[in-house]
Amino acid sequence: MKVLHITSNYPSQRHPAFGAFVRSQVESLQRAGAEAGDGPAVACAVFDLDGRGNLFRYLWAWLRLLGHLLTHRYDVLHAHHALSGVLLCLTGAPLFSRTVLSYQNSPSHEWGRVSFLLLYPFFRRIILKAPDKDYVRFEKVCVLPNGCDEQLFRPMDKAACRRELGLLPEGRYLLFVDGNPRRAERGRSQKREDRFDAVVERLQRACPQGAGALLALKLHDIPQERMPLYYNAADAYLLTSDFEGSPNAVKECLLCNTQVVSTPVGDMPSLAPHCPELHVCGSFSVEELASMAEKVLETAGSLAAKTSDLSQERMSSREALLSLGYGLDRVAGRLLNLYREIC
């Protein structure tokens, strides 16, 4: 089975974190296909649209995609993000090919409901990353969050991670992550770095300075293989987004048994009852986020307590995620079955 992944989110040497979850999914799919004994192996190719927000570059990307589809044959065309779906439809390929569309957020936040309804007839399956009551009722829609690599993201010694990263041993670090460099440059965006800054400022005013001072740790374009060091070095990860699907950074933190404080976005409210390290606020207010973060930081423990996360008694969030099927290979197996259903 030959699958073409069409995306504008894919890592490069310049931006190693941008779309790393798509690369992980592609690699895990190929492993799942090779290991499956009851069906064809999967050969995945990636077409990077890379329009970088420029209309003429997206036009050139569409022309390149059209030329590629005229000269190559695939069993499945998988578009990641609504924009990729639009460009794929403009080639005419969905009229003759088996197609899948993955939304990264709710369709309401990716070109809106009208776009979803226009795209709907051209795809055999439409994947949402989290349940959305406005869209799950559609027959072609299925919910399949991105998987996370449980071998890469695992509990590690907090003190050792801080030494390797050059962080203060006694500092209290609150983490912010945005792997989209273009979005990070805009400041106020979906991830709401301005909201994170306001929470940190509020906490710093209330916290004593010195060796145990509260410090912000912002990550914007860190290679995926380095992220476990930061997740394990931090006291807590603060997700301040206005909207999400199923944010990978949160699941990666939870696989490391790191505390997470989140706005009520995506699948966070449904995941929280299963994961004791996940604390979801009832609103998006700075005051509530700061109050929740303060409580979590007070109970996050010392370096020694974090080291004890390596023991079984602190593995509950990690075990919960894996039992719920968020592991990379489990998700790849489900996606492979979806491809087989439409072939």
What is the structure about, briefly put?
With 343 residues, this protein is α/β, with parallel strands linked by helices.
Layout of strands and helices, then pairs:
Blueprint: E1 2-7, H1 20-35, E2 43-48, H2 55-71, E3 76-80, H3 82-90, E4 98-102, H4 112-119, E5 125-128, E6 141-143, H5 158-165, E7 172-177, H6 181-185, H7 193-206, E8 214-219, H8 227-233, E9 236-239, H9 248-255, E10 259-262, H10 268-271, E11 278-280, H11 286-299, H12 303-307, H13 316-323, H14 328-342
Parallel strand pairs: 1-2, 1-3, 3-4, 4-5, 5-6, 7-8, 7-9, 9-10, 10-11
Helix pairs in contact: 1-14, 5-8, 7-11
Brief descriptors of the model:
single chain, 343 residues, alpha/beta, Rossmann fold, six-stranded parallel β-sheet
Overview of the molecule:
This protein folds into 2 domains: 2-147 and 327-342, Rossmann fold (3-Layer(aba) Sandwich), CATH 3.40.50.2000; 158-323, 3-Layer(aba) Sandwich (Rossmann fold). The chain has helices at 20-35, 55-71, 82-90, 112-119, 158-165, 181-185, 193-206, 227-233, 248-255, 268-271, 286-299, 303-307, 316-323, 328-342, and strands at 2-7, 43-48, 76-80, 98-102, 125-128, 141-143, 172-177, 214-219, 236-239, 259-262, 278-280. With 343 residues, it is an alpha/beta fold. The model is unreliable at 302-312 (pLDDT under 50). The chain is built from 14 helices and 11 strands. The longest helix has 17 residues, at 55-71. The radius of gyration is 21 Å and the shape is elongated. The strands form 2 sheets. It has a 6-stranded parallel β-sheet with strand order 2-1-3-4-5-6. Strands 8-7-9-10-11 form a 5-stranded parallel β-sheet, with helices on both faces. Helix content is 40%, strand content 15%.
